[in-house]
Amino acid sequence: MSNHRINGDRLITRLDALAAIGATPEGGCRRLALSDEDKAGRDWLCAEMTALGLDVKVDAIGNIVGILRGQEPGPAVIMGSHIDTVATGGRFDGALGVIGGLEVIATLRDLGLQPKRDVAVIAFTNEEGARFQPDMLGSYVWLGGMSVAEGQAQQDADGFVLGTELRRIGYEGAEKPGFLKAHAYFELHIEQGPVLEHEGGGIGAVTGIQGITWLEMTFGGQPNHGGTTPMKYRKDAGLAAARLNVFAHGVTTRIPGQLANMGFIRVEPGNVNVVPETVTVTLDLRNPDQARLDAAEAEIRAYAEAIAAEAGLTVSMRDLARFPPTPFDEAMIGKVEGAAKALGLPVRRMISGAGHDAQMMAQLCPTAMIFVPSIGGLSHNPKEFSEAADMVAGANILLAVVLDVANA
Ligand code: HGY
Ligand code: MN
Ligand code: MN
Q1: Closest residue (by CA) to atom 6 of ligand 1?
Q2: Tens digit of each residue's pLDDT (9 = 90 or more) over 296-321
Q3: Residues flanking ligand 1, CB < 6 Å
């Protein structure tokens, strides 16, 4: 593998520049998908890609693609991630992978290297799934798992429609998602967990991503007076939601590897003195093992039905996301390990707890990810932090594996 190095200062300067867009007082970033802040980030990214002399294209779901043409036509070696964030986002989730890709290409240009294959960097639309579901929506449409029309029809919690927002910010592009065929895909990302830090730092050669099931459930009760209605006569949707949350946490103590999070709770009418009419919740269920994930989901669905029947409530359920555990490509994982060792860095294999666009790209081509340590294991939190030296090391590994595969 080559022993070229990226320009670390330029990487950090770009990360700081993007972090300033949608910066929050707490020191993080808030660039919800297709918001004005996301548009500003997209505009910045397109300008950077253009300044690098890349062929910049936008597809019909808003994925932004910058291509450095290779010596020969054919499938590209693609790097990617996302620049949208959750509402309490940090500076590096997603941004590191996109800016790391820009830096790799900038370095290739500095060195006057034109690889055999096209090399591209993609910023995928709505990876987070914080505003529109499912998560990884842009790469899911790129894969063909969801049509452009279906993706554009998704609505956020306030009823805004994805396609309308995409046109509002001017990023409904002409290209067909998936227009650039992929020879291989690499994603550089912060770990977003505590493992690497607990093991003294180093690089994560990611072996795959755990399964993800997101459910939305709505309990329908009877709005009533909070002061006059005896407890035994209430049809209390709020109590049902609370019981469901406790039950879901109980399932995680019984099923190995199971995770559960009730991240969204909306109570209507939401008045202090009214027994709720409806309560809508989301459940984020994850497990590296599909059978266990299915078992957890089945238990939780059955419990929701049972407590609704018991309390005289209605309950409706809707899938928001459903992605299976996804293994990465052994040869590509090996290249990440080899590049880390060549840099004299400790490297360990590990699975990803978070979903990533790589979970979609792995259905299309040999795929692997590079993790760098998250300090305190924090992410989806404005205090998300990674050391510059670790991010530079990760980008050097990205350069090495991309150059190796693009010239193979
Ligand atoms: O939810 C996830 O794992 C990712 O941050 N979208
Ligand atoms: Mn991410
Ligand atoms: Mn994230």
Answers
A1: 128
A2: 999 999 999 999 999 999 999 999 99
A3: 127-129, 135, 354-355
What is the number of the ligand 1 atom nearest to the C-alpha of 284?
A: 1
CB of 358 closer than 8 Å to CB of 188: no
Continuous segment of H or E residues that includes residue 185 = strand 182-190
Q: What is the pTM of this model?
A: 0.96
Counted residue by residue, the chain has a size of 408
Instruction: For residue range 338-363, list pLDDT tens digits in order.
Output: 999 999 999 999 999 999 999 999 99
Domain boundaries, the chain: 8-210+325-406, 212-323
Neighbours of ion ligand 2 (CB under 5 A): 93-94
Coil, strand or helix at 95: helix
What is each CA distance from 331 to 184, 207, 221, 240, 357, in whole angstroms? Answer: 11, 11, 54, 48, 19
pLDDT at 330 over 90: yes
Q: What is the per-residue pLDDT for 3?
A: 86
pLDDT band with cut points at 50, 70 and 90 for residue 2: confident
Say which CATH topology domain 212-323 has. Answer: Alpha-Beta Plaits (3.30.70)
- Expressed in angstroms and rounded, the spacing between residue 136 Cα and the centre of ligand 2 is 9
**Class at the top of the CATH hierarchy for domain 8-210+325-406:** alpha beta
Q: Which atom of ligand 1 is nearest to the CA of 93?
A: 5
Alpha carbon 400 to chain centroid distance?
24
Distance (Å, whole) CA 122 – CA 149: 21
Which residues on neighbouring strands pair with residue 189, listed in sequence order? 371
Instruction: Copy the structure tokens of residue 190.
Output: 């912060």
